[in-house]
């Protein structure tokens, strides 16, 4: 086995890979959601007026459906989740605002990651997601999110570490890359992203856990040895690694079980009734405006846990009644795509 590190690779490849790893590890803390804010969400009981873990997880599943529908890449989904969690960990968000925030996170991530020709329009995303807001609401919310995150939207995520670790491992082994599928690893990462608890894990640790579990199933001693050296090089604490590895393993077992409903991976097809088609043009813009969102002081870590900035307002919540044919541009039938599965 080759020596792990820049000296183990020919030319400038080693310097580039390990220089990038050093950069990722330095940037990692800046782009992690505040643990105190995530803990507040985790501890919140379910009711009609507060953000609880179930609502956050459901919104991430909606993001996954949107990325699938618009053909966006995994990086767009992972970045959108990162932006969402960082924002939710800073602000007290009411459930009625969550739909608008989710759409904004998807659009902000798509503009960073996707080619210009692949970025969906704001109106298309509003229509497909059935978000009860207007384009002006989206623009205003995007500004709020960007300001609260200090315009640092392009983040270092677990997906970055996953790809980098994968490249480093196979630069130091004689095994073929095909035996460790990146598509499968990305699908497993998406499963973890759909659970709030994994937003507390360091991206470097989460990526290592996913690789470690997959390598163990392959029973490749050579790859496992290199991966352990990668773990040491990344200065990942043993107890922290073991803790998150157990949680990741449990999550993947649950999503891989026969009881987990697997989605149809065929391209989504929209079936629109004649009555709906006749009303599409008139109903396109017939959505209520999002209530004005007042802003207060930013969350200060020195204050009490209840001092998170509150995005609530005195307005009534948006209508939650089922949309009629006249109110919907399309029927949001891709809920089936929210159930996660892994490639074989």
Report on this model:
By secondary structure, the chain is an all-alpha fold. It folds into two domains: 13-29 and 157-256, Cyclin A, domain 1 (Orthogonal Bundle), CATH 1.10.472; 44-154 and 263-285 and 322-337, Cyclin A, domain 1, CATH 1.10.472.10. The chain is 52% helix and 1% strand. The protein is built from 13 helices and two strands; from the N terminus they run H-H-H-H-E-H-H-H-H-H-H-H-H-H-E. The protein has helices spanning 13-27, 35-42, 53-69, 74-88, 95-113, 122-129, 135-148, 158-171, 182-193, 203-218, 221-233, 238-256, 274-283, and strands at residues 91-92, 309-310. A two-stranded parallel ribbon has the order 1-2. Helix 1 runs antiparallel to helix 8 (158-171), helix 3 packs antiparallel against helix 4 and helix 10 packs across helix 12. The longest helix is centred in the N-terminal third of the chain and has 19 residues, at 95-113. Residues 61-147 form the Cyclin-like domain. Residues 302-322 are annotated as: Disordered. Pfam families: Cyclin_N.
DSSP summary: helix tally = 13
User: Per DSSP, what share of the residues sits in E-state strands of 2 or more residues?
Assistant: under 5%
Low-confidence stretches: 261-269, 282-288, 299-307, 313-344
Number of domains: 2
Q: Give the N-to-C terminal Cα separation.
A: 29 Å
General form: globular
Secondary-structure element series: HHHHEHHHHHHHHHE
What is the annotated CATH architecture of the largest domain?
A: Orthogonal Bundle
Number of strand segments: 2
- Percent range of helical residues: 40-55%
CATH homology-level superfamily of the largest domain: Cyclin-like
Average pLDDT level: 80
State Rg.
21 Å
Sheet with most strands: 2 strands, parallel
**What is the CATH first-level class name of the largest domain?**
Mainly Alpha
Q: Structural class of the secondary structure composition?
A: mainly alpha
CATH topology of the largest domain: Cyclin A, domain 1
Biggest β-sheet: strands ordered side by side in the sheet: 1-2
Function: May play a role in growth regulation. Is associated with G2/M phase arrest in response to DNA damage. May be an intermediate by which p53 mediates its role as an inhibitor of cellular proliferation.
Domain Cyclin-like: 61-147
Region (Disordered): 302-322
Main location: cytoplasm
């Amino acid at each position: 086995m080759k020596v792990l590190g820049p000296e183990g690779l020919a030319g400038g490849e080693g310097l580039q890979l390990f220089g990038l790893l050093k950069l990722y590890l330095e940037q990692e803390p800046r782009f992690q959601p505040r643990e105190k804010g995530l803990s507040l969400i985790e501890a919140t009981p379910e009711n009609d007026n507060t953000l609880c873990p179930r609502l956050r997880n459901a919104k991430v599943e909606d993001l996954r459906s949107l990325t699938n529908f618009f053909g966006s890449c995994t990086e767009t989904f992972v970045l959108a989740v990162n932006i969402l969690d960082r924002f939710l960990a800073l602000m007290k968000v009411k459930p009625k605002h969550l739909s608008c925030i989710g759409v904004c996170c998807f659009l902000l991530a798509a503009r960073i990651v996707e080619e210009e020709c692949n970025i969906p329009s704001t109106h298309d995303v509003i229509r497909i997601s059935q978000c009860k807001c207007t384009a002006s609401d989206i623009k205003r919310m995007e500004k709020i999110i960007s300001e609260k995150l200090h315009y640092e939207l392009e983040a270092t995520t677990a997906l970055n570490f996953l790809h980098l670790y994968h490249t480093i491992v196979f630069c130091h082994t004689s095994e073929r890359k095909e035996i460790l599928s990146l598509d499968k690893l990305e699908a497993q990462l998406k499963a973890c992203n759909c659970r709030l608890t994994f937003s507390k894990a360091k991206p470097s640790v989460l990526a290592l856990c996913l690789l470690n579990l997959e390598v163990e199933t392959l029973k490749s001693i050579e790859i496992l040895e290199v991966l352990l050296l990668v773990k040491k090089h990344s200065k990942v604490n043993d107890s922290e690694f073991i803790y998150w590895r157990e949680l990741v393993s449990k999550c993947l077992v649950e999503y891989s079980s026969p009881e987990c409903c697997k989605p149809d991976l065929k391209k989504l097809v929209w079936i629109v009734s004649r009555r709906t088609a006749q009303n599409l043009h008139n109903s396109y813009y017939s959505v209520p405006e999002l209530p004005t969102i007042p802003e207060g002081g930013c969350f200060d870590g020195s204050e009490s846990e209840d001092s998170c900035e509150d995005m609530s307002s005195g307005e009534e919540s948006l209508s939650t009644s089922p949309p009629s044919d006249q109110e919907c541009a399309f029927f949001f039938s891709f809920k089936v795509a929210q159930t996660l599965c892994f490639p074989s």
